[in-house]
């Protein structure tokens, strides 16, 4: 202990040299974290040394033990230590009955308790360090100042909360309150389809068609005057006949054959926007008004469109389009797409009319949301974001264009707002309106610039129209769950998981996907990526350990912690083998099929390095030949397979590999969620939340 004392004195001296610093001490006696850590480390080293110099287990210890004085001293010190440890564990919310001899069978269980608690504490340290570094900052939706959200709270995870124990239900209630807004999906006439099936276009009438809608799409089977079972049958027959048509872009043909009128490829005369104060702005939330809007739009030659969606902060599995803003040269419309979700398809009349230009800013997501929620398509679009890029304006945000051309200062404060709120607060209403009000003028100005930068030739204009058309051709793809979709996410992690961790990750991924679809919540709401990775990494032995991996604890994790615990336990039963994740794709089936007894049953709860099965060079070649992979990580130096392992290998060898379809091809693998930007040739992940750790490029090659 001497060395640490002198450390502390040195430390105090340095503090005293700077009397002004005393007030700013990190904690009493330490001027900063470094000084504290240095002192702490010294103490730990001294304690370790002292412990190592105690009489060793065996003869030496037994001899000392025979002296009553020594025995008594050991017991009081031991009790003191256990008490101290209990208190620390208790403080961290771990199981802490270190001193309760009735509950413990012995040293081994105490050791487990310490290991678990260390896990929990280190995890907390990790989380706090992440927080301090700004990594896991959770994004809260923005609310206008003074906004009082409605108190009605409806959520499916409320169901179980009500009948559970009193302590827990109050906690659930508190969490519910934090959600604040009524779930609009409960009012949708047509239920949201989160099923694990591909998206089929929601279109049953096709205005402005050159090529008619395939017969399989033109009538909703439920609209036919036949019994439900027969309608189902007809629907199925049609589906089988026209699988390709079913999934095709309904306006593919029209877009492919879109011919731009001459005047759109020449220099325009900019038409100034009307001042906000002189422009009528209507909120449209009923069919009658919507029909009127549609009639007005049909008479225009161009109008601007924008959408507000709310996926952030986890309110639905697929996100919800909450608002549509439309501006003509004379009027602004704010359309409630929650209220009119099933009626908005009527706007296809103007939206797909090739003679009417639809101006968007950055339409990539809008095009998908229009298809997904409203069954709307765009024929003849001009994307001002694409124009800005083509002109190399440096910054391509709408704010920048508004400042540049209209000298309007907009702030994007409400971009991530909860757009489900009704009645829409005035600030949000005005904000939404500004997104399209100036856009037609911006469109004019951009076209003038494109013309001029292009030396009075239409090439640049043509390029923008072309890029915009490509965006209109995008098809909405529903995220589909497959047996190995978890690998997409895993690849982005730098971690090399062992078989147990990989199994846990796979099971948690499946659990999360299923629950998110079922409860209509985003996967990030059910269990954020970084928490899922932490749980898989640590494999907590206790439900409490799972909770400790999550900060804040997602409500569904708290509710289903026992189910999660079972999944983690199941993972812990896997034979332990370090897996390099790059080939986990090929190998996961092999090691994770419990029915293939490659290494025989193991008690893997306490596997030491020496227990981990290893491969001989021969077994490497053997594995290569059956799963067609490139390399295998041997955990230790090659040893010999045990008789049981050899036997198991021979059994496996006799099988044909039934999993070839899961093996990686030599192609580049791209996440299904990645969006391809044809101009940069870069795949962009839908970067909605910060939870997507280490977002590496989505591409991956073996
Ligand atoms: P905007 O076109 O800028 O009005 O944005 C439309 C919608 O896109 C917003 O309502 C948000 O739901 C979503 N959005 C825009 N920017 C972001 C962002 N940085 N992160 C996540 N969502 C965004
Ligand atoms: Mn937008
Ligand atoms: Zn907007």
Automatic annotation (TrEMBL):
InterPro entries in the record: 3'-5'_exonuclease_dom, Exosome-assoc_fac_Rrp6_N, HRDC-like_sf, HRDC_dom, HRDC_dom_sf, RNaseH-like_sf, RNaseH_sf, Rrp6-like
Subunit structure: Component of the RNA exosome complex. The catalytically inactive RNA exosome core complex (Exo-9) associates with the catalytic subunit EXOSC10/RRP6 (via its N-terminus). Exo-9 may associate with DIS3 to form the nucleolar exosome complex, or DIS3L to form the cytoplasmic exosome complex. The RNA exosome complex interacts with cofactors C1D/RRP47, MPHOSPH6/MPP6 and MTREX/MTR4. Interacts with MTREX; the interaction with MTREX mediates the association of MTREX with nuclear RNA exosomes.
Cofactor dependence: Mg(2+)
Protein name: Exosome complex component 10
Family matches, as SMART domains: 35EXOc (SM00474), HRDC (SM00341)
Main location: cytoplasm
Keyword Ubl conjugation set for record: yes
Biased composition (Low complexity): 1-14
GO cellular component, one term: nucleolus
Annotated source species: Oncorhynchus kisutch (Coho salmon)
Pfam families: DNA_pol_A_exo1 (PF01612), HRDC (PF00570), PMC2NT (PF08066)
Gene field: EXOSC10
Region Disordered: start-end pairs: 1-23
PANTHER family in the cross-refs: EXOSOME COMPONENT 10 (PTHR12124:SF47), POLYMYOSITIS/SCLERODERMA AUTOANTIGEN-RELATED (PTHR12124)
């Amino acid at each position: 202990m001497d060395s640490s004392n002198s450390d502390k004195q040195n430390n105090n001296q340095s503090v005293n040299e700077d009397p002004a610093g005393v007030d700013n001490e990190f904690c009493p006696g330490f001027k900063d974290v470094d000084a504290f850590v240095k002192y702490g480390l010294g103490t730990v080293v001294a304690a370790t040394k002292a412990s190592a110099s105690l009489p060793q287990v065996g003869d030496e210890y037994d001899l000392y033990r025979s002296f009553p004085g020594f025995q008594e001293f050991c017991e009081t010190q031991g009790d003191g230590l256990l008490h101290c440890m209990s208190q620390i564990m208790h403080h961290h919310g771990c199981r802490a009955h270190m001193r309760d001899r009735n509950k413990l069978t012995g040293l081994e269980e105490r050791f487990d308790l310490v290991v678990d608690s260390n896990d929990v504490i280190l995890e907390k340290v990790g989380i706090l360090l992440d927080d301090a570094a700004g990594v896991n900052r959770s994004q809260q939706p923005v609310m206008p100042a003074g906004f009082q959200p409605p108190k009605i709270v409806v959520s499916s995870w409320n169901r179980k909360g009500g009948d559970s124990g009193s302590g827990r239900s109050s906690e659930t209630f508190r969490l519910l309150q934090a959600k604040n807004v009524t779930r609009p999906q409960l009012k949708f006439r047509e239920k949201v389809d989160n099923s694990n099936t591909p998206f089929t276009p929601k279109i049953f009438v096709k205005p402005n068609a050159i090529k008619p809608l395939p017969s399989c799409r033109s009538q909703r089977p439920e609209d036919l005057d036949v019994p439900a079972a027969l309608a189902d049958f007809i629907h199925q027959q049609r589906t089988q006949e026209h699988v390709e048509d079913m999934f095709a872009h309904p306006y593919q043909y029209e877009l492919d054959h879109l011919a731009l009128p001459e005047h759109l490829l020449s220099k325009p005369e900019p038409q100034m926007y009307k001042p906000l104060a002189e422009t009528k702005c209507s909120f449209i939330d009923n069919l009658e008004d919507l029909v009127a809007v549609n009639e007005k739009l049909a008479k225009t030659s161009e109008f601007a469109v924008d959408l507000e969606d709310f996926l952030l902060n986890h309110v639905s599995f697929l996100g919800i389009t909450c608002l549509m803003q439309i501006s003509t040269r004379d009027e602004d419309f704010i359309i409630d797409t929650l209220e009119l979700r099933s009626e908005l398809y009527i706007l296809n009349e103007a939206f797909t009319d090739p003679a009417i230009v639809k101006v968007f800013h950055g339409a990539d997501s809008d095009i998908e949301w229009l298809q997904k929620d409203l069954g709307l398509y765009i024929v003849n679009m001009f994307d001002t974001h694409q124009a800005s890029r083509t002109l190399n304006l440096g910054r391509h945000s709408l704010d920048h264009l508004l400042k540049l051309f209209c000298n309007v200062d907009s702030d994007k404060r409400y971009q991530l707002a909860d757009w489900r709120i009704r009645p829409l607060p005035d600030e949000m209403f005005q904000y939404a309106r500004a997104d399209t009000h100036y856009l037609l003028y911006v469109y004019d100005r951009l076209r003038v610039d494109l013309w001029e930068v292009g030396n009075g030739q239409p090439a640049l204009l043509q390029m923008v129209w072309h890029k915009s058309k490509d965006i209109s051709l995008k098809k909405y793809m529903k995220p589909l769950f497959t047996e190995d979709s978890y690998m997409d996410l895993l690849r982005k992690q730098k971690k090399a998981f062992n078989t147990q961790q990989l199994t846990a990750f796979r099971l948690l991924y499946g659990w999360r996907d299923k629950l998110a679809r079922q409860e209509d919540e985003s996967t990030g709401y059910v269990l954020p990526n970084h928490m899922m990775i932490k749980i898989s990494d640590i494999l907590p032995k206790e439900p409490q350990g799972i909770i400790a991996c999550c900060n804040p604890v997602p409500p569904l994790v708290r509710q289903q912690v026992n189910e999660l615990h079972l999944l983690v336990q199941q993972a812990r039963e896997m034979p332990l083998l370090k897996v390099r994740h790059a080939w986990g794709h090929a190998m996961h089936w092999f090691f994770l099929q419990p029915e293939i007894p490659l290494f025989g049953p193991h008690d893997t709860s306490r596997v030491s390095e020496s227990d981990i099965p290893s491969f001989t060079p021969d077994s490497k070649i053997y594995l290569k030949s059956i799963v067609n992979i490139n390399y295998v990580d041997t955990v230790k130096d090659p040893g010999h397979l045990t008789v049981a392992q050899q036997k198991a290998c021979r059994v496996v060898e006799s099988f044909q590999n039934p999993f070839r379809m899961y093996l990686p091809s030599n192609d580049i693998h791209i996440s299904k969620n990645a969006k391809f930007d044809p101009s940069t040739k870069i795949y962009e992940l839908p970067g909605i939340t910060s939870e997507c750790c280490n977002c590496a490029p989505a591409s991956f090659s073996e």
